[in-house]
Amino acid sequence: MALIKNKKKSIPISEDLRKYLIDFDRSLDLPIEYEDLLRYNNSIPLYDSEDRDTLWETVFYPQDDMKSIHLALKKIYALIKADGDLSVMEHLFVDRVDLCTYGNTQPFRVRIVNRINDNFDYFYIKNADASRIYGLELEHLLSPNRISYLVHKNTLIEEHIAGVPGDQFINQYLNDKKINETRLAKEFVKFTERCFIRLLGDMHSSNFVIDITPDFEEIHYRIRSIDFDQQAYEGPKGVYMPQYFKQNNELIALGMRQMTPETVRQYQKEERSLIAVRYKAARPVVERLLEVMKKDRIAPIENVKKLRKDLADHYDEPAFKKCTCMGEILELSLKLATQKTNISK
């Protein structure tokens, strides 16, 4: 089922959104910008441990540039991981800079290594896109996850979100006898509900990771979005419902084996209640973000008309038909999340 027909264009950051980012410490002067990383003079394909092409390329910089670029990258890492404490840089070095040539924003991924214990971490440098920033901020405010990111001019810095890529998990882990299918199915239901309520689209298995946490008796799962480009952009409601993507079919089948419709509705109600609690806890910030979003033009008007009609039918709620932008649609969707009777179909 093809849900997204056209490639989304990058949306610039509005003045109101930039002021929001400044006011809430998401905007800082950075020692390097995305364009600076384009000065590489050579690259090679990056292969994984099984010698498969990852579709990323490792890039190399002229000797004159490399030292200053690597120093700037370490400073950025200190900003997102240690609130700018440069003392953490003492034992760090930049092991690799990779470029994803097939992604919409062609992000760079930086691998940072601690030379004392060889422990490593990643962060990403991307072209800033308003949709993605709204998605990151809503994830931080309304999901159980916290997100670290920074914006400088048209450059976006994101921390690495750890976990097993969804497609890899389905292929390599799903048939493991140690998998707790009930807990995994429950988490997928809650994840799909979070996406639908806050209008995060395109959540097929390549765009989320599964964080596996062993407990003393059981294993816990957390499904986390890693792609926020399709935040409140597309028109069809199915884009915001992960169960409509064929890449997720095996997770959906698992849920159908493990849960009854009554159980699914129970978990949907639980997640809506949790979102309502998070909303209330961060109400001034969420409402400020929604006010900015309502002034911003983050989707074509035909997408707005399609989504407001779909959601009006879905919830049997005529108020959606009065919405004039994606910000208003999202605001109403979040309002309905506090009403126990409105459960996704």
Percentage of residues in DSSP E strands: 15-25%
Radius of gyration: 21 Å
Please list the strands of the largest sheet in the order they lie side by side. Answer: 1-2-3-4-5-7-6
Structural class assignment: alpha+beta
- Give the mean pLDDT: 92
Termini Cα gap: 18 Å
Count structural domains.
2
Give the low-pLDDT segments: 341-345
Output the CATH topology of the largest domain: Phosphatidylinositol 3-kinase Catalytic Subunit, Chain A, Domain 5
> Under the CATH scheme, which class of the largest domain?
Mainly Alpha
Order of helices and strands: HEEHEEEHEEEHHEEHHHHH
Number of DSSP strand runs: 10
CATH architecture of the largest domain: Orthogonal Bundle
Main sheet specs: 7 strands, antiparallel
Share of helical residues: 25-40%
What does this molecule look like?
It is built from 10 helices and 10 strands. The strands form 2 sheets. A 7-stranded antiparallel sheet has the order 1-2-3-4-5-7-6. A 3-stranded antiparallel sheet has the order 8-9-10. The protein is α+β, with helices and mostly antiparallel strands and 345 residues long. The protein has 2 domains: 15-128 and 148-159, no CATH class; 164-337, Phosphatidylinositol 3-kinase Catalytic Subunit, Chain A, Domain 5, CATH 1.10.1070. 40% of the residues lie in helices and 18% in strands. The protein has helices at 15-23, 63-82, 130-142, 166-172, 181-197, 249-258, 261-281, 283-295, 301-315, 326-337, and strands spanning 42-47, 53-60, 92-100, 108-114, 120-127, 149-152, 155-159, 164-165, 208-214, 219-225.
